[in-house]
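Sample A.
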Amino acid sequence: MARDPQPTKDRILKSAERLFAANGYDGISMRDIAAGADAQLALIHYHFGTKLDLYRAIWAARYTKEVAQRREQGLASIDFRSPVPRVVRALVEIFLLPLLKMTEVEELQAFVAIGARECTDPREAERGILQEFLDVPAKRFLEYFGKAMPDLSRAEIAWGYQAMLGISILYIADRTRITRISGGAARAGDTKAATQPLVDFCTGGWLALWEARRRRNRKNAAAAPAKKGRKPSPRKMNEHKRRR
């Protein structure tokens, strides 16, 4: 078989990305990657170092360019003077759209699968990949959602973010189930059809969380004077007399 003319380093990255996506980090060996790249094992160590270093190189190449940079550009354009629903929708789109668009590009689909696997892997903390690449951007989103909806507590914002992340991961990871349970009305991997409902749902969830908190705040504010020993109204005094 003719040797792939693609440079060895690129072949190694491509082989590793494909195998990590299909089998997970722990499901493949360096020898598997070498065989898939038609390269000597020593060359992997020469170009990348350890298996974890190679895995990290994939994240640095893909996540930084395809997700992080696009999100940074979007966040820089946010105008917090706009109505809250508009700001929240913009933030949801900045978070979701780079991920969804990647699923439409064949070259990037393997990395999208890697990301979904890593986010749900019980051993991800041992590798530190999410901490290195995702934690700082995640905190930036928490900050921005908090600025858009200052009534929300830090915990509420964190749970809202977690729910939005879960939706994106499940969309990426699902290969057949949504097609099956919907009787074909919705099809797994149909990003064009899925984008609008997912953005609408996440935006609505954030705004529902915000409105619920505002209602509780108003209720607490209305009840506060009575708790501080404010003189009861004449109506309350008359009711008290009748009970006596």
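Sample B.
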Amino acid sequence: MKQAKTETVVMSLKNILPVLAAVLVILATGAKAQQSLGDIVKEYGFDWIIGKWAAQTDEGNKIQVIYNWQLDKHLVTINLKWPDYEHRGMIFYVPGKDEVVQIGVDNKGSTWQGTWEVDGDKARVRIEQTKADGQTQKMAIVYSKVDARTMKTEVYGVDETGKLTGEPRGTLQYNRKAVKGEKKAADKSRDTSRKKNKTKGEV
């Protein structure tokens, strides 16, 4: 009787082990196949947004915004500055909702929360601002690529149904700026190239 019981336990383990192995393989494959924010940005061709940008309003106010990859391209940080105003934000992908989300806070005490969408060759973020006094306002910012060094943003109002207003409230054109590290790397590359050419020319 004891021998039969032992054989049954062994047989049960033999049956369970392949199932466990299959489950582990499925879980591992699923984890690998899971999309990151970097995958989504690359898939839709919006990686051109990453970098340092500068613009100037009609009133002459200078604006600077930097979008940086963080955490192995699972996160984009936002650093926005203009006179008397600063904003810090984060953009990330939420797999459970299949949404690209943006949150942020500014030096006026406002918090920001929104979601990103693709509109043809443009990227659009629908965002809600909650001010320090509790008042809220909704808006949408549309990003479009003019050329390799130029980006345009358009700010729209959003009505109660979620529809964008007909005309943008404001439009800004940003120019790409070199980040300090990038400039040093470019300068170093040029210096190395000159040295190589000089060495080749020497006898």
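B remarks: The mean pLDDT is 82. The domain at 40-183 is CATH 2.40.128.20 (Lipocalin).
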